[in-house]
Amino acid sequence: MKLEGQVRIPSGCAIAAVISKEGNTMSGERVADAMKPMHDRSNGLGGGFAGYGIYPAYKDFYALHMFFDERSTRKNCEIFLKERFEIVKSEIIPTRKIPAITDEPIIWRYFVAPLQSVLANLQLDEKEFVARTVMKINTEMNGAYVFSSGKNMGTFKAVGFPEDVALFYKLEEYAGYSWTAHGRYPTNTPGWWGGAHPFALLDYSIVHNGEISSYDANRRFIEMFGYKCTLQTDTEVITYIMDYLVRIQGLTLDEAASVIAAPFWSTIEDKTDIEDKEKHIYLRTLFPSLLITGPFSIVLGFNGGLMALNDRLKLRSMVVGEKDDKVFIASEEAAIRMMEPDATGIWAPAGGEPVIVKVKDGAY
Amino acid sequence: MTLKTHIGDEKIALLPFFISKSIEKSLEVRYNIMVIDARSLDYKALNDTLRKSEKDCSIVGCCGQRFIAAGMSQKDITIQGIPGNALGAYLNGACITVNGSVQDAVGDTMNAGKIIVHGNIGDAAGYAMRGGRIFVKGNAGYRAGIHMKAYNEKMPVMVIGGTAGSFLGEYQAGGVIVVLGLSAPDKKIVGYFPCTGMHGGKMFLRSDCSNVKFPDQVTARAAGAADLEELKTYIAEYCDLFGYDIQTVLAAPFTVVTPDSRNPYKQMYVAN
For residue A361, what are the CA distances in angstroms to A296, A358, A364? Predict the structure, then answer.
């Protein structure tokens, strides 16, 4: 086999997303189509999707999507889960056998509600309890990984090209008001099932094109707060940072974006809006270890919305377009045209400029 | 040249992403060109077809195929749809017209020829180009003209009709970059950190640039009469292509930026 260097592998990860501001649902096929013209950005070592609003019948329950290496791991994990949750439904995630996707682990999902008695005993709120349980399983239970743990949302990921991953998980059978997608070209970490994007915790999910230079500084900081980076790749830490800043610290998405893609000090210095200037000084001073350096374009999914963001130097491409109730985001305009040939107002957000799209209240 | 504009304006510009076989045929006969339907072609197949053609080509239904016309020396090529990254990379004399926007790295390391874009361009346009011309009706993304250079008779020119993103002309070593800000007169003509590391070449910005911060190692000054005469040679064709009156375009303050060799570039990224 020829390695990169002997042969040119033209790639660099691909992301795409679509959301209906009216909360209208669409199947996962649409965002999967967006990945087709960007095929060469991935190399078949990871593809994945996040869908929001896909489990309306179980919307009050946390949907745990899990990989298991073998049956006994699953059995042991279920014993563990039953001590902490009421499991209202447990099933294999339906997949389609296709030649392009091989060596799949056991892929299962559970719809669960934390046991009130356990919550009372631990004096934790529900979300914190679920987050801690996910961390516990992922660090302590060999061969078991929770890769999705939000309500009325789910991620689907595998080793393969994203178009094939969509086929594998039968995404045409799900209907969601928002979707994100990722095609992976791993640079210096292994291409394995857990390492495919999105990376999710509770209802936050991240798809990421790029490479975080500040990974270890970010990881050391965030692990002080109970998060554990276990998935052998940099992107995971962004998910935990967003959960920490938004859920735990109560920052707005806009403020969180100013933390992870903070402007240069010289840019802050030149700001004429004093309030804005002070805000940036405050955020950079308070969370210096959460500045993410190195190239990234990301889409953060959450219940009721999406946020797209580039690193402050804009070392990765990202464009946004619109049509009717829908907003489209992708690494390339071609991908947006694939989802919606008539999309208008195509624009490229500046580095560090978040694009936040929310579904109108009550529509999700 | 006329042929291209002809097709661009008269016929295909009005059509959606793809055209029917019968229209395709009639265009081929009428203009003596080859029409390539890119819908089922990957970048390699598309480029192979382009190379094999002995006529000028019109690509329709383009959606993300990369490296179109890379290294090509001849032919006029028009494109409907969205060409992929590195359009016209290493271009060596061919002329490409895109009736829409293009993605990243258009004209990467271009040596000669012309690229005309009727929409916007993505990031890193004209990366290390050392010859030829790029004319863009709309806006440019980040890092347009990064490491542009000149060599003997090779003098690359990039004219951006709208505004440019941050790091315009980063590490520019030669050639000419012109930004006109025509599409959005109220918008800042260039983003943050223009000319970082610039050590050669020249930049013309159609603005007094009072709101633009340049690095210490360049000199930014108001354009004089001689500068405007020089500028005319770069933008005459641009105005022709996109239907602007050159006098109107020139009737605004211009800033000329050149490197200051007494105070060379030191660093940007280390002390953040």
Answer: 30, 8, 7
Angle between helices A274-286 and A253-260 (to 10 degrees): 60
- What is the radius of gyration, based on Cα positions, of chain A? 20
**Number of structural domains chain A divides into:** 1
Give the domain range for residue A161: 14-358
| H helical segments located in chain A | 29-34, 71-82, 116-122, 126-140, 162-168, 215-222, 236-242, 253-260, 265-269, 274-286, 333-339
Within-domain flag for A9: no
Statement: residue B4 has pLDDT above 60? no
pLDDT on residue B188: 95
Q: Between chain A and chain B, how many beta carbons pairs sit less than 8 Å apart? A: 65
Per-residue pLDDT tens over the stretch A287-346: 999 999 999 999 999 999 999 999 999 999 999 999 999 999 999 999 999 999 999 999
Cβ neighbourhood burial of B232 (10 Å; 0-12, 13-18, 19+):
middle
Output the CA–CA distances (angstroms, integers) from residue B240 to B13, B136, B137, in the order listed. 18, 12, 11
Give the three-state DSSP class for B158. strand
Instruction: Tell me what the pLDDT averaged over chain A comes to.
Output: 94
Rounded CA separation B7/B27 (Å): 8
Distance in angstroms between the alpha carbons of the first and the last residue of chain B: 48
Q: State residue B2's pLDDT score.
A: 31
Chain A residues lying within 8 Å of B192, measured CB to CB: 264, 267
Residue A199 β-bridge partners:
A206
More confident residue, A167 or B22: A167
**Would the CB atoms of A341 and B16 count as touching at under 8 Å?**
yes
Q: Is residue A316 in some structural domain?
A: yes
ipTM, two decimals, is: 0.88
Q: Which fold has domain B120-264?
A: Pectate Lyase C-like (2.160.20)
Q: Looking at A13, A14, A32, A212, which residue is catalytic? A: A13
Could A264 and B82 be called an inter-chain contact, meaning their C-beta atoms sit closer than 8 Å?
A: no
Note whether residue A1 is domain-resident: no
Amino acid letter for position A291: L
Going from N- to C-terminal start, the domains of chain B cover 1-85, 120-264
Q: CA angle, corner B78, sides to B140 and B176, nearest 5? A: 35
Tell me A238's DSSP state: H
| Gap from A271 CA to chain B (nearest CA, Å) | 11
**A337 vs B272: CB contact, 8 Å cut-off?**
no
CATH code at A230? 3.60.20.10
Identify whether A13 is a catalytic site residue. yes
Residue to test with chain A: of B39, B41, B60, B63, most A Cβ within 10 A: B63
Cα-based distances in Å from A36 to A181, A335, B64, B102, B105: 11, 8, 9, 18, 20
How far is Cα B226 from Cα B175, in angstroms, rounded to an integer?
17
pTM, entire model: 0.92
